[in-house]
Design a protein that fits this description.
Helix 3 packs across helix 5, helix 5 packs across helix 8 and helix 6 packs antiparallel against helix 7. The protein has one domain: LigB-like (Protocatechuate 4,5-dioxygenase, Chain B), CATH 3.40.830. Strands 2, 3, 4, 7, 8, 9, 10, 11 and 12 form a nine-stranded mixed beta sheet that branches. A three-stranded mixed beta sheet has the order 1-5-6, with helices on one face. The chain contains nine helices and twelve strands.
């Protein structure tokens, strides 16, 4: 099964050479990179969020496997949709699904449902792949799109994922694909996003889930971030770091309606 690109040439350059040039501009080589259990990375067009994602992935060690959780923007398919076979076509070639790891997660996580349709037009995992490939060309992935999950379902999924990978000699990186506030004034975005970021820095998935709802923070990937936080905490994470924050206004210089972007790493 081959999942074809949905946003190549739109969110990021559609040719291998163009994408390579963009990644060289957005990332840097670090002699020492931090180990990470999980990360939160933005998923907008690279002109807006690429610098945040690039700084994040330049700062961490990227292992050979990644489990990527994203919000289901399209509303198609299951609420916890995994694609457990095949590959994702990208401008440079294919990124394979780690079928062994996917099968293990399906066994360990009753909430997961096999559903490639949820991924067919969803952009939020696709835009992460060039950054992972930049630092780990042999990376394999397990893609999971999340729809409507309760806090307890997020806890169950995150802790089940953690239990499934805890004994791996090299654990996969857990990636939560999420933008922050959407289409609000820059000052409002920064204030509200700080509330959510503070909960993530405190390794507090319950607090993140609740404050996004009570404060009406339009963070599209709150479910992925909550799941990854539950997993990271179960896997022994003791610290979190905000690598970079920005809004689209930093690029467009239009501050009336912006989208916020945050890159965080959990250790």
């Amino acid at each position: 099964m081959k999942r074809m690109p949905a946003v190549a040439g739109q969110f990021y350059p559609g040719t291998a050479s163009g994408l390579s040039r963009a990644l060289l501009e957005l990332t840097r080589e670090e002699k020492e990179r931090l180990p990470a259990i999980g990360v939160v990375s933005p998923h907008a067009g690279y002109v807006y969020s690429g610098a945040v994602a690039g700084e994040l992935f330049s700062s961490i060690q990227v292992p050979g496997r990644a489990v990527i959780f994203c919000p289901n923007h399209t509303g198609i398919g299951e609420d916890a949709a995994i694609m457990s076979r095949g590959a994702w076509r990208m401008p440079w070639g294919d990124v394979p699904v780690d079928e062994e790891l996917a099968a293990r997660l399906e066994t360990a996580c009753p909430l997961l449902r096999e559903d490639a349709s949820a991924h067919s037009r969803e952009h939020a995992i696709e835009v992460q792949l060039p950054f992972l490939h930049r630092f780990r060309p042999d990376v394999r992935i397990v893609p999971v799109a999340l729809g409507r999950l309760s806090l307890e379902e997020c806890r169950e999924l995150g802790e089940n994922v953690a239990d499934a990978i805890e004994g791996d000699s090299e654990r996969p990186l857990l990636v939560a694909s999420s933008d922050m506030s959407h289409y609000v004034p820059d000052a409002v975005a920064r204030k509200k996003d700080r509330m959510a970021i503070d909960r993530m820095l405190a390794l507090d998935p319950e607090g993140l889930y609740r404050i996004v709802r009570t404060e009406r923070i339009s963070m599209c990937g709150v479910l992925p971030a909550t799941v990854v936080l539950f997993a990271a905490r179960r896997l022994g994470a003791t610290s979190a770091r905000l690598i970079r924050y920005a809004t689209s206004g930093d690029v467009s210089r239009e501050f009336d309606q912006v989208v916020g972007y945050a890159g965080l790493a959990f250790r």
